[in-house]
């Protein structure tokens, strides 16, 4: 097993595992799986729906054609609120005793391996599921891979709450970045003011915090 990715820790993890196989056959990939994670692009396309679900919906359609039984399917891509219980569940209508949950990824390139173990820069794992069994399995997965000294906060909730929580997290961080840059612009326009001093002070305010509080 070789990896051409520069993602830290990935090549070492692949080299050490004895239980990982790669396949282009979807049926082969899921036949022995209890948990099936779906990570595909849902690009921001603007407009009424905002996120393009077409690739994700196609994957669920293909899974449905396999008439899976007793599986736990987990969406990790960003979706609009209502997708899991709406379009997603409808697309899996021929899969008896199969659950669909939402576990959005909070990771960034260059920190993916560590991010999945610790909840990323934000130390957060969101599990949105109506199935107690799926909730339990996902919670167990993250508890097993998390370092004891950096275990993430695992938040269990409904799929709808998880969908909104993911979008709210994205929007809040974007708001902090925009606010920080606005303060930086004001400082740049004020003789004697230093944007780095100001933002550093704001970052030490416990009600604000340091994440996403660097100008630029």
TrEMBL record:
<dbReference type="InterPro" id="IPR014026">
    <property type="entry name" value="UDP-Glc/GDP-Man_DH_dimer"/>
</dbReference>
<comment type="similarity">
    <text>Belongs to the UDP-glucose/GDP-mannose dehydrogenase family.</text>
</comment>
<dbReference type="InterPro" id="IPR036291">
    <property type="entry name" value="NAD(P)-bd_dom_sf"/>
</dbReference>
<dbReference type="Pfam" id="PF03721">
    <property type="entry name" value="UDPG_MGDP_dh_N"/>
</dbReference>
<dbReference type="GO" id="GO:0051287">
    <property type="term" value="F:NAD binding"/>
</dbReference>
<feature type="domain" description="UDP-glucose/GDP-mannose dehydrogenase N-terminal">
    <location>
        <begin position="4"/>
        <end position="135"/>
    </location>
</feature>
<dbReference type="GO" id="GO:0016616">
    <property type="term" value="F:oxidoreductase activity, acting on the CH-OH group of donors, NAD or NADP as acceptor"/>
</dbReference>
<protein>
    <submittedName>
        <fullName>Uncharacterized protein</fullName>
    </submittedName>
</protein>
<dbReference type="InterPro" id="IPR001732">
    <property type="entry name" value="UDP-Glc/GDP-Man_DH_N"/>
</dbReference>
<feature type="domain" description="UDP-glucose/GDP-mannose dehydrogenase dimerisation">
    <location>
        <begin position="160"/>
        <end position="216"/>
    </location>
</feature>
<dbReference type="InterPro" id="IPR008927">
    <property type="entry name" value="6-PGluconate_DH-like_C_sf"/>
</dbReference>
<dbReference type="Pfam" id="PF00984">
    <property type="entry name" value="UDPG_MGDP_dh"/>
</dbReference>
């Amino acid at each position: 097993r070789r990896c051409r990715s520069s993602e830290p820790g990935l090549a070492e993890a692949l080299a050490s595992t004895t239980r990982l196989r790669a396949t282009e056959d979807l049926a082969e990939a899921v036949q022995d799986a209890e948990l099936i994670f779906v990570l595909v692009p849902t690009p921001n396309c603007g407009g009424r729906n905002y996120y393009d679900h077409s690739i994700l919906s196609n994957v669920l359609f293909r899974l449905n054609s396999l008439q899976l039984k007793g599986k736990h399917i987990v969406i990790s891509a960003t979706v609009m609120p209502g997708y899991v219980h709406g379009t997603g569940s409808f697309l899996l209508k021929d899969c008896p005793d199969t659950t669909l949950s939402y576990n959005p990824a909070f990771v960034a390139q260059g920190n993916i391996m560590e991010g999945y173990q610790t909840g990323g820069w934000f130390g957060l794992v969101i599990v949105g599921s109506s199935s107690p069994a799926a909730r339990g399995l996902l919670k167990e997965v993250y508890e097993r891979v998390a370092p004891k000294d950096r275990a993430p906060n695992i938040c269990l909730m409904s799929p709808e709450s998880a969908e909104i929580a993911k979008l709210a997290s994205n929007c809040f961080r974007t708001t902090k970045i925009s606010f920080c840059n606005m303060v930086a612009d004001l400082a740049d326009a004020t003789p004697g003011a230093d944007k780095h001093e100001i933002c550093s002070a704001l970052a030490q305010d416990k009600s604000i915090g340091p994440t996403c509080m660097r100008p630029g």
